[in-house]
Amino acid sequence: MKGYKNFQVAIYCPAPFLKDVALQEIEEGLNFFNQHLRISKVYLETHRGGVDVEKEKVLKVKEFFEKEGVKASGGITTTISLENDEFRDLRIFNTFCYTNPEHLKKLVEIVEFTASMFDRLY
Length: 122
Prior knowledge:
Blueprint: E1 9-13, H1 15-20, H2 23-36, E2 39-48, E3 51-52, H3 55-67, E4 71-76, H4 101-115
Parallel strand pairs: 1-2, 2-4
Antiparallel strand pairs: 2-3
């Protein structure tokens, strides 16, 4: 299915959804969307909070969308899990602290992981 002339439609798959969803459910969802909208692009999120999606799963979903003619890019939400964070009571947002060496190390790992599968990430 070709896209629109003057705009494109993108969808975003958050990491918690992507981690637990079956490929068949994604296929059914895309079939539903295609009845109403022409999807041009999908963002596949690899990290959000305490949820990281396995590489094999991300690659399978990416391959599915690309076979369907939907461009795929990586997505990252730079949030952390607060369960083991000693500063959790001081935080307003659950984001990485860029002055914390442990947070920076983890963020670099996430970005490198995502960039190993996608030409673009957001």
